[in-house]
Design brief:
about 140 residues; 6-stranded mixed beta sheet; Nuclear Transport Factor 2, Chain: A; about 25% helix; 6 strands; alpha+beta
């Protein structure tokens, strides 16, 4: 469970997460996670996973059993406190050579400032309304 990388900001940690995802590198992806059994990961339409081993096993299975994927983030928003940051965005997922993305998926990432730098504490992704155009997510309805 030992992480080598030091992320000086939550944004750096997020970029490393999505870069590792796009390269299907489970070790690099897990290096962004907090070294804590309280971490949580919820993939779209799946039950939440708790703990380092469960989260790692799920990502390993995804990378082994899926075509290479790339995520494009849209409508990204951040909230920062002294020791925590929250990122919300809409993900559009490009799978293999498919020209059209899958999605949209609404994602919430929670980052924690730890002694070894910023780390991902929780990643939660949920499908949203189908039929939205690519780039949807910029409308605020109140």
């Amino acid at each position: 469970m030992s992480s080598q990388a030091i992320f000086s900001s939550a944004e750096d940690c997020s970029r490393a997460f999505y870069d590792a995802f796009s390269h299907a590198e489970v070790d690099a992806l897990m290096a962004v996670w907090a070294e804590d059994e309280e971490i949580c990961c919820a993939h779209p339409s799946a039950a939440p996973l708790y703990g380092y081993a469960a989260v790692r096993a799920a990502w390993d299975a995804i990378f082994r059993n899926s075509a290479k994927m790339r995520i494009e983030l849209r409508d990204e928003r951040w909230h920062h406190t002294i020791g925590m940051a929250v990122q919300w965005s809409i993900e559009w997922i490009y799978v293999g050579d498919e020209p059209q993305p899958r999605g949209p998926v609404f994602v919430t990432n929670v980052f924690l400032r730890a002694p070894q730098g910023w780390r991902l504490l929780s990643h939660s992704a949920a499908p949203v309304q189908t039929g939205l155009a690519v780039g949807a997510g910029n409308v605020v309805l109140h």
